Amino acid sequence: MHRLQASFFLARVHVRCCSRCARPLTFGRIPVCPLMRRTVIAVSIVLCSLLTNGCSKAIARATAATVFSVNGGVAFGSAERNDFQPVTLKSRIHDGDSVRAANGASVDLGLIPGAFAQLSSDSEIKVEELRITKDGNETADDMRDRRARIRVIRGKLIVLFIPSDRNASGFVITAPGVTVKPDSDCLFSVWTDGTTTRVTCAKERVVASADEQPPVTIAVGYFQRWPTGRNEPVVAASDASAQIDITESLQAGDRLLGQASSWQKRRPF
Rounded to whole angstroms, how far apart are CA atoms 157 and 249? Predict the structure, then answer.
């Protein structure tokens, strides 16, 4: 009578849940006989599939604007209910909130990573959307998408846009009859009195479009006013209001850049 002797080997099983994971999961040395090799491989595949689904699932959530600094009387809340409260450094401004700056007041805001703004004196905006999408089990820096949509109701909003190359970003500023969609580094302002809207570029370039008109690229040192009969932007040096836009934008941009650098290091998402 012959004895059957099964030969065993020690297998170390590694499972990597996705390509972004720095290190695979290791389940140690497992004694496996040749007949069990297919079973071990099948179990590994199932585990990998489960972990991949958990790691790659995108989670979208609303976020809130962060207050960098506030000067004078600035309030936020629901314009529909006329329910406002003073803006402080601890305020969190969400979708649907309006922000109003009184005469002589201003507020600096972090909207989403890469998008920062100053609401100037005697101005009002409405936050229509603030949202981020990130990988479910990934680290804080692994965001797939960031979206912000801000409507300028009256007055002036100065915007610093410095998007990350790694993350998709949808950032839109609207004003009566005009939509601004920056897609690269830029510094610009949007001013409106409810009838006329002016967009002035202080750094790089910005693209704006009016209703039923082709987009207009506004280069640094130029502005465009709507409604207008002009098809091309005008040099800011030829207009006193546009010159003020440039000066105020440069001053606000330097301050926002310093505030943004500190905020991005400690942001919670």
Answer: 9
For residue 244 the two structure tokens come to 């003020």
Q: Architecture of 59-266 per CATH?
A: Sandwich (2.60)
Distances, alpha carbon 157 to alpha carbons 9, 10, 12, 46, 137, in Å: 69, 66, 59, 52, 36
Residue ranges per structural domain of the chain: 9-56, 59-266
**Rounded distance between C-alpha atoms, residue 106 and residue 126, angstroms:** 15
Instruction: Please give the residue that has the higher pLDDT: either 15 or 79.
Output: 79
Give me the amino acid identity at 205.
R
- The answer to whether residues 103 and 127 touch, using CB atoms and an 8 Å cutoff, is no
Task: Give the long-range contacts of residues 85-92, CB within 8 A, separation 24 or more.
Answer: 91/67, 92/64, 92/65, 92/66
Residue 102 vs residues 70, 82, 122, 152, 164: alpha-carbon distances, Å: 11, 15, 5, 15, 33
The closest of 79, 110, 123 to 97, measured between CA atoms, is 79
Q: In the 8-state DSSP scheme, what is residue 2?
A: P
Tokens of 212: 């039923």
Q: What does the angle CA 195 – CA 200 – CA 206 come to, to the nearest 5 degrees? A: 110
- For residues 93 and 111, the answer to whether their CB atoms sit within 8 Å is no
Higher pLDDT, 17 or 232: 232
Q: Is the pLDDT of residue 17 over 90?
A: no
Q: Which residue has the higher pLDDT, 229 or 69?
A: 69
Phi then psi for residue 69, to 5 deg, are -160, 155
Residue 260: how many other CB atoms lie within 10 Å? 21
